[in-house]
Amino acid sequence: MPLHQTVPQEPYRELLGPRDTERAILKIKDAFQTSLAYELGLTRVTAPLFVESGSGINDDLNGVEKPVSFTMSGVDGRRAEIVQSLAKWKRTALADLGFGVGEGLYADMNAIRPDEVPDATHSLYVDQWDWERVMAADDRSVEFLVDTVRRIYDIIRRTERYICHEYDELTPYLPDWITVVHAEELLARYPDLSPREREREACREHGAIFVIGIGADLSNGEPHDGRAPDYDDWITETAPRRRGLNGDIVVYNRVLDDAFELSSMGIRVTPESLREQLALRNASARERLAFHRRLLAGELPLSIGGGIGQSRLCMLYLQKAHIGEIQASIWPESMRASCAAAGIRLL
After folding, report:
1. Residue 48 in domain
2. Catalytic pick from 198, 261, 311, 329?
3. Structural domain total, the chain
4. Which of 83, 191, 213, 263 is the most exposed place for a label (fewest CB within 10 A)?
């Protein structure tokens, strides 16, 4: 199907009705988070819905999205903003709650991203498991990153097999193995395609890929995708210079015939790489913010972390054509009409 099309070209038939879908969503979420906690040694923690403006804790995403904000009348009129993700908050929580090397946390993250353009896979409402784990200095390597990716992908496959066992209407199709590829390799392989189109072709070939190197400029002078400069380490101090220590887990979605991102993750910045990446993005002024001051002062542990989309996973497993079949949100009327005509029931 063409990129960003909101309904499949082929006739669509939902495999599970709305009530069975709701039951299946609960089973998926319970099974996945239990496996995630066990596999990575994570403790569930309570996450904030909003943080104070100007603290530097909220995720800036690509640097242009503006969070929903409001005045807190009962807190001296200070400003707060709805989180866009917990990428930086989690690292402060690791320090404040006293987690040690090999230990970590995860949280249910619910966010509002008002600048998101709704389509079959994007919504103004975002729900994901945000996780973060303390790591040793010797583990700051691509090898450690990839090992963690493979452990998470095994959880993804294990949960797929479980939910397909629960419902005869569903059949698993994720490959046994996830292929690791650098964004520069995708550019070399498909120089005339956009980054998303490169991912689609690679996912058609391999079924599941982990794209390393999100955020740094590639040889064509453009990044594969945007990444804020103050959490993932996408330009490392080790050779090869632009290898990067972050990436995205992307799988083939056979309902949409498209690449389908499930997780964004990476090894986090050190004080040195934070300064370098802020300078590259002309954002060195952020060094004065509370989060950045703590990181530069060495008060935050070395860590690896990421987010795993809850609605995205459920959409994939239940073989839905639109994320609005999984979560309640607001959609353009034209999208509701085209989905209804295609037999897609949006919540």
Report:
1. yes
2. 261
3. 1
4. 191
User: What pLDDT, in 10s, does the model give residues 79-116?
Assistant: 998 888 898 999 999 999 999 999 999 999 998 888 88
Query: Is 196 a member of any domain?
Result: yes
Set 84, 128, 263, 329: catalytic member: 128
The yes-or-no verdict on residue 22 having pLDDT over 90 is yes
264 is catalytic: yes
* Domain-located, residue 346: no
Which of 33, 85, 123, 264 is labelled catalytic? 264
Q: Look up the domain containing 326 and give its range.
A: 18-341
Per DSSP, the residues of 37-103 read HHHHTEEE----SEEETTSS-S--TTTTPPPPEEE-TTTTT-EEEE-S--TTHHHHHHHHTT--TT-
Residue 59 annotated as catalytic: yes
The answer as to whether 84 is a domain residue is yes
| 158 is a catalytic site residue | no
Catalytic residue among 160, 248, 258, 325: 248
Q: Do 180 and 148 touch, CB atoms closer than 8 A? A: no
Concerning whether 248 is annotated as a catalytic residue, the answer is yes
**Which pLDDT tens digit goes with each residue over 185-206?**
999 999 999 999 999 999 999 9
Q: Which two tokens stand for residue 134?
A: 């303390």
Q: What is the CATH number of the domain that holds 28?
A: 3.30.930.10
Q: Is 261 a catalytic residue?
A: yes
Active-site hit among 113, 133, 157, 198: 113
